[in-house]
Amino acid sequence: MKKVIVAGSSGMIGQLILNRCLNDAAVGEVISLVRRPMEIEHPKLHEIVLDDFLDYTSQHAHFTSVDAVYYCVGVYTGAVDRERFRQITIDYPMALARAVQLVSPKSSFVLLSGQGADRKEKSRLMFALDKGIVENQLLSLWGNQFYACRPGYIYPVQKRKEPNFSYSLSRKLYPVLKYLGKKFSITSEELAQAMFYIGLKQPKKTLFENDDLLRFLEEI
Question: What residue numbers bound the domain in which 53 lies?
Answer without folding.
Answer: 2-219
